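User: If you would, consider this record:
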Amino acid sequence: MASSYLQRRGQVETYFDRTAADAWARLTSDAPVSRIRATVRAGRDRMRATLLDYLPQDLGGRRILDAGCGTGALAVEAARRGAQVVAVDISPTLVQLARDRLPRQVGAGSVEFHVGDMFDAGLGEFDHVVAMDSLIHYRAEDVVTVLAGFGARTRESLVFTFAPSTFALSVMHTIGRVFPRGNRAPSIEPVRQQKLHHLLAAHPAMQDWQPGRSEVVTAGFYISQAQELARR
């Protein structure tokens, strides 16, 4: 794995496990939040529903990787539709919160939480992989490397999000680099969809995959783009 991925992974882990753990615990609950954070919550809810819509309605007997599961909301919804979900996150704090929030019953499915790198091949093989907002902090080249790793272990589809290259995101990205703060979230890496598709098409391990559905979800201070990759 590239050093750029490993370096950014360490920054992401520090931010979500220590710097912003309490804020994310509140954001991902039904507790009152500021208007700005309410838009982020609403956007994340819409994005979660979008990615789940990209999966078969009946997930019975299917094994799913929730890559970067956070506090586990998507994993629980997939399990309620019958999936056997392996949910992994690099933040022990968020994974423990996800375990604490896990309902006693999740329908016919199950959820198995792990602390670790979503890229870990030891997690096994899957029918589908979902990565919601867990790749947005990485360079396009590193995103494609991670997707290629997923693809080698996935039978049907990869659904993920990336930060679309918009003017607003580009401005925030530039400001973040010029005026760094110790407690700032790791910067989001805007990616043009055309570049992402080009890199995927050029990667030797992604020749059996093709882009499918895609949708930009915007809600106030939240903007992210869903992308489906399906086996040919």
Notes: The beta strands are 63-67, 84-89, 110-115, 126-131, 154-162, 209-219, 222-231. The helical segments are 3-19, 21-27, 35-53, 73-80, 92-101, 140-151, 167-178, 193-202.
